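Batch job 17 of 40 flagged for manual review because the log was empty.
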Amino acid sequence: MEPVTLITGGSSGIGAATARALLKQGHRVAITGRDVDRLAALATSVGAGDRLLTIAGDAADENQVAAAVAQIVGSWGRLDTVIANAGYSLPGTLEDHEPAAMRAMVLTNVLGPALLARETLPHLRASKGRIVIVGSVAGTRNTPGNLYSVTKWAAHALAENVRLLVAKDHVTVTLVAPGVVDTPFWDDRGGSPAAAPTLTAEQVADTILFALNQPEGVDINQVVIRPTGQVN
């Protein structure tokens, strides 16, 4: 039976590249995102028919997360892989951020993956599945006033916290922490740092698939991937 994968934030960037790669590998893939037009555009470009399910929703809303998981399991009967990819950053520092924007980013980047784990773990225990949490090198070092970095430190802690919870159940948990990636992440930040080396979304997707494609009994727990030349 084809494995079933759920990717949050799957309409662009790393999420979309991972969806394309998994579809080519034979998975049935469900992607969630807030932008209905982006979801539709990806579905059209991929042309995967009923092997791709697009679900509009907010990764930080518990009811929408639960509904998405229920729709996937109701449609395909199982869930084998979950990729917590939804997340974003605010430009500037915490001194520049509006409190409402700060709250929204923390909820998406920290509560979102936690809600996803909460809703999917019963199904992943049944399938002895795999979880990938997409973090960041920003979660391994501090930058002055960078609240996004704080959220990624929390996401990294969540990955290990969940691993400890489910290791006995033979559910694997992988944190993938990329450096600078050339994706729409940078669109509201004036573009990626000038002259900085960058990874492609496809290269990060390849890393995610490396973790997912390990044989039974192998649990890749953490991968940090930077473009050659990135120092921090």
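Reviewer: the log was empty due to a logging misconfiguration, but the result itself is present. The helical segments are 13-25, 36-46, 62-76, 99-127, 147-166, 201-212. Unflagging and moving on to job 18.
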